[in-house]
Fold this protein.
Amino acid sequence: MNLSIRNGVEADLPAIRDIINHYIVETAVIFDIEEVSLENRQEWFKQFDPSGRHQLIVAEVDGRVAGYASSVRFHERPAYQPSVMTSVYVSKNQLRQGIGETLYRVLLGALEKTELVHRAYGLVVIPNPGSAKLHEKLGFHEAGVLNEAGYKLEQYHDVRIYERRFE
């Protein structure tokens, strides 16, 4: 496997759309209900800055996008600006190869270097032991559980919120 990690670019958006749409349609790990369009991902992409709080990191395997990690605005209110929401998604064909951990490590390292982020938060729909383990391995700590926070695939789902401190 020839793995490379880099900042995301607009040309990655079709692959990113395909990756996220799998999770939207097939799983409860993300609470979007409808597939996203390329236009949606183009608008989403505008928030990213390789040296800012909101970053997009992409993994390529043999020249093809295999996953991505991102940090986005935690909340719309201005006082939340030093906090970000982080996530990582890997192509269904590239799971369990360490790509997600590598992506998340690179993203967190980049955020730490900016000195603009005070806290990073990750939401994990329960149960998802792989994601829980990944967050804990990368220095996140459980901050609480949101009981029955979302309804998808004909049932309610609890969400565990993880917090990582940047000192």
Summary: The first helix runs from residue 13 to 26. The chain has a mean pLDDT of 96.
